[in-house]
Structures are given as structure tokens and as C-alpha cells.
């Protein structure tokens, strides 16, 4: 029987992974109870490889534990970790005037100052979800203060907007609009602020109008300011995982505005990237494509996170369009993902496997430990949410 033939059983599978394996691993190994925050340089067995902490990982983890409390169950242990992360994050934000550094020392002092603006986006994301969980005005005010600094920085061209130095002032990056479309949308909803909602909406529209290229059947990461394809190598770069993740963000945004044509565009874009990124020889998704839809580095390893984004995006697309291709690809994605990424010995899933799905046999060939308490628990949470609706017809 194909996985999608029993949505209720699938939901139980995702619940088991989340509640019995993944989150217990993070609570046991990831929380830095001595200095605050969460580790992200962790070996598969939970060994801490470095005390350095990325700002990305702090904001993401704050979102994860707050979202667990908001969406899965009001467990005291999840809220306790969210409080722990919030206190750590707030010290960093205050000390840096709400411009978030790239990398922290273990104690939260700055190791690498602000660079790409993604860390600011994850800070807003985490603070917004924490404010929902607790009603904290302090969290909402910090998210708004960060929004203000982000908008000012966005008005100034630079590499902080994930633009290569040689293209500053001549290109724009889909990844920036991707994160800030949903981050601004959620903050705007929290604060009931039409201006912030509009800012998120404008990024969402820009993705579909400028970065989506129907003539190529692809979403291009770096485009010229007018949305045309760049002649430089950066303009030929396609990230299927980013594209699929971005599209489910946009479905969330456009469904609240009842813009079905935009949802249809996003669903079509999901299909383009699933079909072109699929490895016909070994299965699974290639990480990078060129403008011809061919893998850039076909023999490189495969990362979990694009597969997780695809699992949720395909279920969500099916909920809206009801077309069989969504479940066809969902079943292929589910079977490959669950066959190769879960680590039944340790609990947390593998971040990377080799192209054929195997785990490197020699330690020197293992990818560096770089776990993040975000993509996997979010995938499991979001899939549980949509599967509950699909299984009940609500």
C-alpha cells in the first residue's frame, strides 16, 4: 500500500518521529543549559563539536519550541526551552541594537558580526512565534524593532542581501524575498499591522513575478533587478529546495488573501522543481540545478532539508488542487526520505547522505556535524497539520 492511501496512519508516523525520536534528542543534547541558547555543531550521537552558535540556529530553535507549544501540545517542557532560548536571544538583540550578528561565542558574545540578513529574519520568526505562545509584549516589541532595522538595511544594496559582490546594485535574491515574505506576513498578523502585511505580500508577489520563469519551468535564485535572467554564473543557479519551500510559504500567504490564481502558480512551480530535481538513477532530490534543469554536481551528497520541504509542499498542494501527481510524487519522496535519513540508533535524522542514499562508512567521509532544530521538526509538524485535515476532510 502506498503511504498516501492512509492519511491517518501517515499522521501517526509523523507524530511518532517528532515526539518519540527527534525532539527528545534535541532536549537531551542540544540545549546549552550552562551558557544559554542551543548548539548546532553536533555529531550524530549528540556530541557537541563546537560551542560556537549561529544566530540562524537560535532564532530557528526559538520558533521550533514555541511552535511545538502552539501547534502540537501545550507541554511544559517545550515552553520551558522556549523561555530559555528567548532569554538568550533577547540579550543578543539588545546588545546589538536589533541588528543580529552572524556567529556567537558560546556565552552569546559576538564572534562574527552581522553579515547576511537571514539571521535577522529568523530572529523575527522566533520572536513572533514566542509572542504567540506566551503573549509576551517584550517579544513582540523586539520583533518589531528588528523589522525596523531590517527595512532600513534592505533599502541599501549590499552583500547582506545575499548578493555576490560583483552583482551588488544589479541583482536581487529570491532567498531574501522568500524568508521575509513569510516573516513579515506572520509578524503583521501578530500585530494586526496592515503595513507589515503589505511588505510581506510585496515580497511574495516579487517571487512569482520576477524569479519564477515559466519559459524555463524554474525559479531562479539570482535575477536582474527587472527579473530578467543574468548572464553571470550566479544567474544560472537554481536551488530546488528553496523553490519548493518558498512556494509553500506563498500558498500560506495567498490563501489568506483568497488569491487562487497565485496559489495555482505556486503549485505549478512546486511540480517543476520536484520533477527536475529528482535523481532518476538513485532517487531523492539533487541539491542544485542549472537553467537547463540539469544537476550542477550530480555526484554530491543529498541533504535532508529539501526532501522535508517537498513532503509538506506536496501534501499542501494536493489539499488545494486534488491532483494525482501530488500524491504520486509525495509517495516517492516519502519512501526515499524515510528509507535513508532517519537514524534509528540515535533518534535525530541525518542531515546528509551520499547520492545513492548510503551513509559514508569511514568517519573522515562523514559530513561535518551541523544539525539544526528547525527543518526536520517543522516538516513533521506541518505534515501532521495538513494530514489531520486530509484525514478528516476538514
Structural overview:
Strand 2 (103-104) and strand 3 form a beta hairpin. With 394 residues, the chain is mainly α. The model has no long low-confidence stretch (mean pLDDT 95). Helices cover 56% and strands 5% of the residues. The chain has 12 helices and 9 strands. The longest helix is centred in the N-terminal third of the chain and has 23 residues, at 7-29. 46% of the residues are buried. Helix 2 (55-72) runs parallel beside helix 12 (375-392). The protein has helices spanning 7-29, 55-72, 76-95, 118-134, 137-154, 174-191, 194-211, 240-256, 260-277, 304-321, 324-340, 375-392, and strands at residues 53-54, 103-104, 110-112, 171-173, 212-213, 218-219, 222-224, 302-303, 352-353. The chain folds into 2 domains: 1-30 and 238-394, Glycosyltransferase (Alpha/alpha barrel), CATH 1.50.10.10; 31-156, Glycosyltransferase (Alpha/alpha barrel), CATH 1.50.10. It has a 3-stranded antiparallel sheet. Strands 4-7 form a two-stranded antiparallel ribbon. Strands 5-6 form a two-stranded antiparallel sheet.
N-to-C CA distance? 24 Å
Task: Report the CATH topology name of the largest domain.
Answer: Glycosyltransferase
Helix content: 55-70%
DSSP, total strands: 9
Structural class: mainly alpha
Number of DSSP helical runs: 12
CATH class of the largest domain: Mainly Alpha
Task: Quote the average pLDDT.
Answer: 95
Oligomer: single chain
Compute the number of structural domains: 2
SSE sequence, one letter per element? HEHHEEHHEHHEEEHHEHHEH
List the helices and strands and how they pair.
Layout: H1 7-29, E1 53-54, H2 55-72, H3 76-95, E2 103-104, E3 110-112, H4 118-134, H5 137-154, E4 171-173, H6 174-191, H7 194-211, E5 212-213, E6 218-219, E7 222-224, H8 240-256, H9 260-277, E8 302-303, H10 304-321, H11 324-340, E9 352-353, H12 375-392
Amino acid at each position: 500500500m502506498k503511504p498516501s492511501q492512509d492519511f491517518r496512519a501517515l499522521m501517526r508516523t509523523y507524530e511518532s518521529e517528532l515526539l518519540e525520536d527527534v525532539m527528545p534528542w534535541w532536549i537531551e543534547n542540544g540545549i546549552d543549559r550552562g551558557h544559554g541558547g542551543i548548539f548546532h555543531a553536533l555529531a550524530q550521537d549528540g556530541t557537541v563539536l563546537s560551542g560556537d552558535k549561529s544566530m540562524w540556529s537560535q532564532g530557528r530553535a526559538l520558533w521550533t519550541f514555541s511552535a511545538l507549544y502552539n501547534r502540537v501540545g501545550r507541554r511544559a517542557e517545550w515552553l520551558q526551552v522556549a523561555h530559555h532560548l528567548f532569554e538568550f536571544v533577547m540579550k543578543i538583540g539588545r546588545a546589538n541594537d536589533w541588528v543580529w550578528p552572524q556567529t556567537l561565542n558560546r556565552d552569546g558574545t559576538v564572534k562574527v558580526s552581522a553579515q547576511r540578513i537571514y539571521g535577522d529574519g529568523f530572529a523575527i520568526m522566533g520572536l513572533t512565534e514566542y509572542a504567540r505562545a506566551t503573549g509576551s509584549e517584550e517579544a513582540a516589541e523586539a520583533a518589531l524593532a528588528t523589522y525596523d532595522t531590517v527595512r532600513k538595511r534592505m533599502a541599501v544594496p549590499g552583500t547582506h542581501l545575499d548578493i555576490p559582490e560583483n552583482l551588488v546594485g544589479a541583482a536581487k535574491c529570491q532567498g531574501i524575498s522568500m524568508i521575509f515574505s513569510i516573516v513579515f506576513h506572520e509578524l503583521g498578523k501578530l500585530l494586526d499591522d496592515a503595513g507589515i502585511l503589505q511588505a510581506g505580500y510585496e515580497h511574495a508577489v516579487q517571487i512569482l513575478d520576477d524569479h519564477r520563469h515559466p519559459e524555463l519551468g524554474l525559479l531562479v535564485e539570482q535575477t536582474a533587478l527587472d527579473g530578467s535572467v543574468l548572464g553571470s554564473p550566479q544567474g544560472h543557479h537554481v536551488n530546488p529546495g528553496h523553490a519548493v519551500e518558498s512556494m509553500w510559504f506563498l500558498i500560506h500567504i495567498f490563501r489568506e488573501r483568497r488569491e487562487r490564481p497565485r496559489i495555482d502558480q505556486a503549485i505549478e512551480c512546486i511540480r517543476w522543481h520536484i520533477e527536475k530535481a529528482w535523481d532518476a538513477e538513485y532517487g531523492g532530490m539533487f541539491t542544485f540545478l542549472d537553467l537547463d534543469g540539469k544537476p550542477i554536481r550530480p555526484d554530491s551528497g543529498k541533504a535532508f532539508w529539501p526532501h522535508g520541504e517537498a513532503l509538506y509542499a506536496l501534501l499542501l498542494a494536493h489539499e488545494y488542487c486534488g491532483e494525482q501527481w501530488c500524491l504520486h510524487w509525495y509517495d516517492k519522496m516519502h519512501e526515499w526520505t524515510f528509507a535513508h535519513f532517519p537514524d534509528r540508533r540515535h533518534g535525530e535524522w541525518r542531515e546528509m547522505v551520499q547520492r545513492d542514499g548510503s551513509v559514508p562508512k569511514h568517519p573522515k567521509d562523514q559530513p561535518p556535524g551541523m544539525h539544526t532544530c528547525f527543518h526536520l521538526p517543522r516538516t513533521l509538524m506541518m505534515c501532521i497539520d495538513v494530514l489531520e485535515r486530509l484525514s478528516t476532510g476538514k
